[in-house]
UniProtKB/TrEMBL annotation:
Gene Ontology molecular function terms on file: metal ion binding; UDP-2,3-diacylglucosamine hydrolase activity
Domain Calcineurin-like phosphoesterase positions: 27-227
Protein's GO biological process: lipid A biosynthetic process
Superkingdom in the source lineage: Bacteria
GO cellular component terms, semicolon-separated: membrane
A Pfam family matched in the record: Metallophos
Protein's organism: Brevifollis gellanilyticus
Keywords, sorted A to Z: Cell inner membrane, Cell membrane, Hydrolase, Manganese, Membrane, Metal-binding
Name of the protein: UDP-2,3-diacylglucosamine hydrolase
Length: 298
């Protein structure tokens, strides 16, 4: 199988020259909340990640393109185009099935849902069949009552989030000058502010109820930028995180095990140098089924 190579892609150097670079081989790759168009989008890292994972299905679970930001401020760049080219090359060269579920920031896709273009589908929700049972895959914005009932407040919140990211950028520059690691203000807010903690808890519980109502053993979502892999009640709950700060995605391995993996874990496993200085958010996989990962020399 030929490698996906883009003409403007720099050489991919190994972390350890004594080891061979590899690709991860999985059944399904699920990624969400890339937010192409935002200045803090980690498009280069997301492209690098997707390019070196072999999968039967690539599920892009909403907010891949941030139309809200593009309408207000623009901000599309060459790296964002490179991400889309990587996805299309994956479909062309590796025969990967691409499933795109619309999110709230790319709600312009509503007028096209559902539609199939060759091996590329755009849909609203997806039932993913596994040996353990069915998993419902949705972006998850329908369970955010602010987004659903008060979209203007949600858009104001998006502006506030962008401002927070800009402040965070300056703060992290100051930390780097002093020799300290990066710090995520938005993650700190989610962990420390009671209303944010309560919102995440309610959100997860509501999605669990939706999965049960559709006779699914699990639910896979994005939207809140909080990667997770855990059991809530009797339901397997997974959240793919984002590619603005977390740099995380979900892998379904060949043995049926789901795993939330960070970009930097992926780079260590495949012996590839990370793109850029940004660090992934650490994740804990509380639910664990199956055996160890399998990698292919490439």
């Amino acid at each position: 199988m030929s490698d996906i190579i883009l003409a403007d892609e720099p050489a991919d150097e190994p972390v350890d020259p004594t080891r061979q670079k590899t690709k991860l081989r999985v059944r399904t790759l699920i990624i969400s909340d890339v937010h192409l168009g935002m200045p803090d989008c980690k498009a280069a890292q997301a492209s690098h990640f997707i390019r070196h994972i072999l999968c039967d299905q690539l599920i892009m679970n909403g907010d891949i393109i941030d139309a809200w930001h593009l309408r207000r401020l623009g901000g599309w760049n060459k790296g964002h185009t490179g991400f889309l080219r990587t996805v299309l090359k994956k479909m062309e060269k590796e025969s990967t099935e691409i499933i795109y579920l619309r999110g709230n920031h790319d709600d312009i896709l509503d007028r096209f849902v559902p539609i199939q273009l060759d091996n590329f589908r755009i849909i609203g929700e997806h039932i993913h069949r596994t040996a353990r049972g069915n998993y419902l895959i949705i972006h998850g914005d329908g369970f955010d009552h602010v987004t659903t009932n008060h979209p203007w407040i949600a858009k104001l919140g998006g502006i506030g989030y962008n401002i927070l990211l800009r402040v965070n950028r300056l703060y992290n520059w100051w930390r780097h000058v002093r020799g300290k690691d990066s710090f995520s203000l938005s993650r700190w807010v989610k962990l420390k502010v009671k209303s944010a903690v309560n919102f995440v808890g309610r959100y997860e519980e509501q999605l669990q109820e939706l999965a049960k109502s559709k006779n699914c053993v699990g639910i896979i979502c994005g939207h809140i930028h909080s990667p997770a892999n855990k059991i809530i009640g009797e339901t397997h709950y997974l959240n793919s995180g984002d590619w603005v700060e977390s740099m995380t995605a979900i892998l379904e391995h060949e043995d049926g095990r789901f795993e939330v993996v960070t970009y930097h874990d992926f780079c260590e496993r495949t012996n590839r140098q990370p793109k850029g200085p940004a660090k992934s958010t650490p994740v804990v996989n509380e639910a664990n089924f199956g055996v160890e990962n399998v990698t292919l020399a490439m």
